Amino acid sequence: MAEGLAFSCNCGALRGEVAAQGIKTGTRVVCYCADCRANELYHGQPDPAPDPVDLFQLAPDTITITQGADHLKALRLGPRGPLRWFASCCGTPFANTLAKPGLPFAGMRSDLFQDKSALGKIRARAFIPAPGKQARTKGGGAMAWGILSRMITARLSGRWKETPFFDAETGKPVAEPQLISKTERAKLYP
Ligand SMILES: [Zn+2]
Ligand SMILES: [Zn+2]
Fold first, then answer.
1. How many whole angstroms from 115 Cα to the centroid of ligand 1?
2. Phi and psi dihedrals of 41, rounded to 5?
């Protein structure tokens, strides 16, 4: 079997591996949206702007946390937003998922991997700012197709239940997501 790719948070307390299949079927994208930036700022990471946040979208069932899974916590920037998972040991943003496991999706932060080049080329650029216009997305087709095909595969195989983010029995997140306050939120959207 081909080797997976190791990941860890900044301090190294939370570690794991993405299976080779997950690397092969994942899509590397970058996102310029205000929420991805706000998430970095919330955790005291360097401000990515004007650069985007580098993400690797993959099937959650290909992610295995081998150490420090109890550090995995989640927050929400707004009541309807995705779950933004992070390593609470050191405040490293970890991944975004949808609120329920039934639509299996994860966008891991590419910086968690020592070897980002192993994640492949950047296939899509989301929410590119355009002065005076609506933000544009390039490569949206490749991104959407990746999300859809991974969801279908995970549903048909039943592997969608094997996710580090949700309890297989109850479908509840492994950590209760915290909604950040309006005051905190205001500071994150400069
Ligand atoms: Zn850590
Ligand atoms: Zn974003």
1. 18
2. -65, -40
pTM of the predicted protein model: 0.95
In the sheet that holds 178-179, the strands lie side by side as 136-138, 122-128, 27-31, 53-58, 106-109, 92-97, 83-87, 72-76, 178-179
pLDDT at 3: 81
- Which residue stretches of 69-166 are H helix? 140-157
pLDDT of 77 above 70: yes
Q: What is the mean pLDDT of residues 132-140?
A: 94
* 50 upstream amide cis, omega within 30 of 0: yes
Other CB atoms within a 10 A radius of the CB of residue 78 amount to 12
Q: How many A from CA of 129 to the centre of ligand 1?
A: 32
Residue 122: strand pairing partners: 28
Strands (E), the chain: 5-8, 15-18, 27-31, 53-58, 63-67, 72-76, 83-87, 92-97, 106-109, 122-128, 136-138, 178-179
